[in-house]
Amino acid sequence: MIVVDCAVLTINIKKMKRISFITGKFLIFAMFISTMFFTVTSCREKEKPQTVIIEKQVETPKQTPKAEKSEGTSISIDGKGVEFSTKKGDKETEISIKD
């Protein structure tokens, strides 16, 4: 029985060597393929994104109709000019400077 156990042990060691040899070759092949893949993908020339400039006309805000004026002071500045108005009781002053 001891001889049989040694023979079985010897056969198992040979199988293990064969399996580790195949596994080792596979790992080396996998590492080679990985290295080649990363080399090809990292050395590729990268495209720079193109900047597209879109020019758009700026719309001027529409002036709303003026409601009943309340007492106080108001200043309105827009692209056309400046408007200043005050109201206190019956006294009303309005100044506008425009193009």
User: Which descriptor suits the 3D outline?
Assistant: rod-shaped
Low-confidence stretches: 1-5
Total number of beta strands: 3
Order the strands across the largest sheet as they lie in space: 1-2-3
Largest sheet: 3 strands, antiparallel
Can you give the helix content as a percent range?
40-55%
Radius of gyration: 44 Å
Our measurement of the CA-to-CA distance between the termini, rounded to an integer number of angstroms, reads: 116 Å
User: How many structural domains are formed by the residues?
Assistant: 2
What does this structure look like?
It contains one helix and three strands; from the N terminus they run αβββ. It is of the alpha+beta class and 99 residues long. It has two domains: 1-43; 69-99, no CATH class. A three-stranded antiparallel beta sheet has the order 1-2-3, with no helix packed on it. The longest helix has 41 residues, at 2-42. The protein is rod-shaped.
Outline the fold blueprint:
Layout lengths: L1 H41 L29 E7 L2 E8 L2 E8 L1
Antiparallel strand pairs: 1-2, 2-3
